[in-house]
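Example (one chain per record):
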Amino acid sequence: MGPGGTGGSAAESTSSSGGATTGPASSSASGGETASTGGSSGECVTGQTRGNQVAVIGESFIAATHGITQQIEKQAKANGSLAENERYIDNSVSGTTLAGDQIPSQYRKAAENGMIKYVLMDGGGNDCLLRGDGDGALAAAESLFETMAGDNVEKVVYFFYPDPIGNQFASLKTCLDALRPKMKELCDGLTSPKCYWLDLRPTWNGHNEYTQDGIHPTSAGSIATGDAVWEVMKENCVAQ
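Predicted structure:
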């Protein structure tokens, strides 16, 4: 998130078969699942995921330093869920939006190998900051999830921004506050792919040291965010 980042990749035409399927609301705090990962009694079987089966997409909240991805990978390796010599496909690019086919094109580039089973993402921050267009972000996310469903992506972790700090971001906060419940409803209602929602406000609240400019994470912020994402992944057998 932030206007100082590089522009997104060129728009491509989206082709998707099938569609995202909605169902009963899910929760990021729900117990782990065993479908497609094995295990019993709510426990995941680790070591079943290759790095090229996981795509990370989004903008500069992730891409500024890629520290969030690195922390998730660190936790995955410590847990035996990712081989020491492997990494996730991190296609996040600073300055990109969901609308305008920028973040969606990051997913499609990762999915060219036909291997993507899990997606870790944010999105909507720049749609609000640069365009004031939360509804455009929501519509683009709906289309993106339909594409993922057609590609048989199994699970998504959608982590949504902490509150921006500073009066200069008042309009950004207003837009994010309006978009957050709509995007959560979309994520919670999906069954194909299954989507797990993570609101980062509880993780960040009271920790101004997690950002220097009011919106992007410092090293400490990236570590805290990566750990929070990893907990959701571990609880729900995402990329284990």
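Caption: Residues 170-189 form the longest helix (20 residues).
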